[in-house]
Write a structure and sequence with these properties.
Elements: E1 5-11, H1 15-30, E2 35-37, E3 45-53, H2 55-71, E4 75-85, E5 93-100, H3 102-118, E6 132-137, H4 143-153, E7 161-163, E8 165-174, E9 177-187
Antiparallel strand pairs: 1-3, 1-8, 2-6, 4-5, 4-7, 5-6, 8-9
Helix pairs in contact: 2-3
């Protein structure tokens, strides 16, 4: 029987952007928003969570990553704003959104999603929404606290950074927290003047 790997595809973040988002999480906790902030080492811009996959599927995913990377040049993003899933009245996950070349990111994610389906991965049940998770609810978050936080931190913005590569990670859930191992990386090297097609 094949060994299964828990894996996800992401865009790496610069350390100072992770630090800014992590500090925001600390400020939210101090303001009374009851979240468990995400550790800096666990921050990524997730493009696709695969769940359990086989080593053979890893090779197929790598091929899809290479094709995508050849069609897209590096592009600019920033962490921008504040929000909550499923909504601020009953938030379970607090996140920051993205600014910059978000249309390019969406085109990339949607094109990849189509290619994953041809490989037999089930489609996502909701549209792609690029975000960085700040923290997850420890207890019920009071809606008034979340509404107040949105007023204060809704204009949060990090510096602009370059999305330079797609990275496939293995995620191992350990007692001391998740451990991430890079399985593959594909640098964006497309021609910015060419129309992207899949």
């Amino acid at each position: 029987m094949s060994e299964f790997l828990r894996a996800f595809l992401a865009i790496e973040l610069p350390d100072d952007v992770k630090e800014a988002v992590f500090r925001l999480g600390g400020e939210l906790v101090a303001s009374g928003v009851k979240i468990r902030p995400v550790a800096k080492t666990a921050m990524h811009l997730t493009v696709k969570f695969f769940g359990d996959i086989t080593p053979n599927q890893v090779e197929l995913i790598k091929a899809g990553m290479e094709k995508a990377a050849a069609n897209f040049p590096p592009f600019s993003l920033s962490a921008l704003g504040l929000g909550a899933f499923p909504g601020y009245k009953n938030p379970r996950v607090v996140w920051v959104g993205l600014g910059g070349d978000t249309l390019i990111l969406s085109n990339l994610a949607n094109g990849l999603e189509k290619s994953w389906q041809t490989l037999g991965f089930p489609p996502e049940d909701r549209p792609f929404k690029g975000h960085l998770t700040v923290g997850r609810a420890k207890d019920r978050i009071a809606p008034e606290k979340m509404a107040e936080a949105l007023k204060i931190y809704g204009s949060f913005e990090s510096r602009t950074f370059e999305a330079e590569a797609l990275t496939l990670y293995r995620s191992e859930l350990l007692p001391g927290g998740p451990r991430y191992t890079v399985l593959a990386r594909s640098n964006f090297n497309g021609n910015p003047s060419e129309e992207k097609s899949w």
